[in-house]
Every structure is written in C-alpha cells, then in structure tokens.
Specification:
Layout: H1 2-5, E1 19-23, H2 27-39, E2 45-48, E3 57-60, E4 63-67, H3 91-102, E5 107-111, H4 118-130, E6 140-143, H5 148-161, E7 165-170, E8 176-182, H6 196-199, H7 204-207, H8 218-237, E9 245-249, E10 257-258, H9 269-284
Parallel strand pairs: 1-4, 1-6, 4-5, 6-7
Antiparallel strand pairs: 2-3, 7-8, 8-9, 9-10
The chain binds adenosine-5'-triphosphate and zinc ion.
Residues 24-29, 67-70, 76, 79, 91, 114-116, 145-147, 150, 214, 216 line the site of adenosine-5'-triphosphate (ATP).
Length: 292
C-alpha cells in the first residue's frame, strides 16, 4: 500500500476493521459512502486464531451501515451518485446495490427508517451499540442529514453512548458547507451550540417557502463529502490532524477552521456527564502534545 510506504499511514489495512454509520445518503452522504467503499477495497482476510483449541475464524472487512427514509427521485439527478434508472427505489437499497458492485468486499447494512421516530430511535441506538464487526459498538457515525431534528437525534444517541461523530452540512444557497468533529465531553455537541435560527426559537419548517426549493450544487456537496471522508480516514487510521470545525465558502474559496468548546450549560444531560468524565480524564492522564 503506497500510503504506507510513503510513511503517511502506519497500517492502512486497519481500514477493514472498522464499521462506519452514515445517516442520510442524499447529496453528501451517498458520495461519502462511495468514497469510503473505494477506500475499503481489498480482500476479506480470514484469520486463524493461533494457540486456540477451537481455531476461531475472524472475518475482517470494512463495514458500512446506511440509514435513510427517502426514495431516489428524478429531481435529485443534479446530485452525484444515483442514476435515473434507480428512481423509485429507496436510497439505501439503490446505494447498497451500487456500492456492492464497486466493492463486493465491503459489507453494507441498510435501514430504510426515520431515526427521529421514537420507535425507530431504539433500533438506531441498538445498531450504534452492537453494529460493529464482532457485535461491539460502531467506530464512527457520519451525519449527512439536512435537518435540525435528525442532527439532534444523532447528537442525543452519540452523547448517550459516548460515541464520536462528524456532523456535516451544505447551506440552502449551495455555496457554503462545513464539517464538525464531535467528541462527547471534549468538543461542543450539537446542543451545546445550536444554530442561530434554532437558538432564536424560530421553527425550521416556517423558513421553507412553498414552491421554493433549496439550491444544490454537486460541486459543493462533493467538496464537503471529500472533507468528511478525509477527516474520517485521519481519525480511523491515526494520521494528520483532524479538524474540529472546518467550513467551506465556495464564493471566496475560504476554509475557516476552529475548535468549539463544550457548553457547561448544555441542555443535554449526557453531554454534561461526558464533560465531567473528560475533565476527570484530563486530570488523571494529562496529555503532552509533544509526546503524541
Ligand atoms: P433534497 O432534500 O433537497 O431533496 P436530497 O434528498 O439529496 O435533497 P440531502 O439534503 O442531500 O437530500 O440529504 C439529506 C438526506 O438525509 C436525505 O436523503 C434524507 O432523506 C436523509 N434524512 C433526513 N432526515 C432523516 C431522518 N430523520 N432519518 C433518516 N434519513 C434522513
Ligand atoms: Zn452539549
């Protein structure tokens, strides 16, 4: 693996040990899923357990779990990834078919559900907790949804499970985007610093005018998906520096970057718990940046 030979990544093969959940396989999520599928290319490795009477066999393979409640529509064809012939299929089914053709070694699991519904939230939590390769928790959640309620649902679940996740978004005018790395307790969660509209108690649905739909550009969505997957690889394979918050302004080619600290008055009780745990961890094991 060239990335290894060039000293960028210590062990690229580790990619096959991970399970990544993508919530929302629309404009950003579907491209994210395709990039990760192509990164996970390689044969499934069967490993015999040495020194074991029962010679257990472990199967390593990169695993993607997709959630989305929507169907592919012809109107969405200015986005990348989906094809006109897939119109009418659920997005997760269409995505799974294409991704499996690209790389049959990647295991794809799909949920055609709305994660914000109470009944389906339980299933969402269970998948995050047990969806890993050996029944363990998943390694990372990527939010590629387009609304506040779904982002808050992912936030609630990840705070409860102390699971790291990336939030992503593209603005309604299609020329701005961002990604945000959320480590419960260490960086601001989605409830710590809610978007301005929500903080001002304006109902998100009232902002949408009838007959006027949001603009979208495959370019901006492609850039945001690229930033998201690049930072996902850095996190999973331990190379480079992960951006806490990275914005993209297409009009000026400006990429603002910053760290947002958790809010000690956050409304999510699990966030406050994680903040306490993080403070105690820092006291117990102070991190010396130069030794990392
Ligand atoms: P548009 O919304 O403009 O038609 P799109 O369908 O491509 O475009 P995006 O904004 O690009 O949507 O992607 C967001 C994706 O997140 C959509 O596929 C949507 O179905 C999915 N999504 C949003 N909320 C939820 C939810 N609560 N549960 C599951 N999937 C969700
Ligand atoms: Zn918070």
């Amino acid at each position: 693996m060239a990335l290894q030979r060039m000293g960028i990544v210590k062990n690229y093969e580790d990619i096959r040990k991970f399970t990544v959940v993508i919530v929302g396989v629309g404009g950003v999520g579907s491209v994210t899923a395709e990039m990760l599928t192509r990164c996970g290319i390689g044969k499934v490795i069967l490993k015999e357990m040495p020194n074991s009477e029962h010679s257990l066999t472990y199967i390593y393979g990169f695993q993607l779990i997709l959630f989305d409640y929507d169907k592919v529509e012809l109107a969405n064809m200015n986005r990348l990834f989906y094809q006109p012939a897939q119109a009418g299929l659920s997005k997760v089914t269409a995505a799974s078919m294409t991704l499996t053709r690209i790389n049959p070694d990647v295991k794809i699991e799909t949920y055609n559900t709305n994660i914000t519904l109470t009944t389906q939230f339980e299933e969402f939590l269970r998948v995050l907790q047990t969806g890993g390769i050996s029944g363990n928790r998943v390694d990372l959640v990527l939010s590629c949804v387009d609304n506040y309620e779904a982002r808050m649902t992912i936030n609630t679940a990840c705070n409860e499970l102390a699971l790291e996740w990336f939030e992503s978004g593209v603005s309604e005018n299609a020329v701005c985007g961002h990604i945000q790395y959320i480590v419960p307790g260490e960086s601001a969660c989605f409830a710590c610093a809610p978007p301005l509209v929500v903080a001002s108690e304006i109902d998100e649905k009232t902002l949408k005018k009838d007959g006027v739909c949001a603009a979208s550009l495959p370019t901006t969505m492609g850039v945001v998906a690229g930033l998201l997957v690049q930072n996902t690889l850095k996190k999973l394979l331990h190379f480079g520096t992960i951006s806490w918050y990275l914005g993209y302004n297409a009009l000026a080619d400006f990429f603002p970057s910053m760290m947002i600290k958790p809010n000690p008055n956050c409304t999510d009780s699990f966030c406050l718990k994680r903040q306490e745990e993080f403070k105690n961890r820092v006291i117990e094991e102070p991190v010396c940046k130069n030794e990392e």
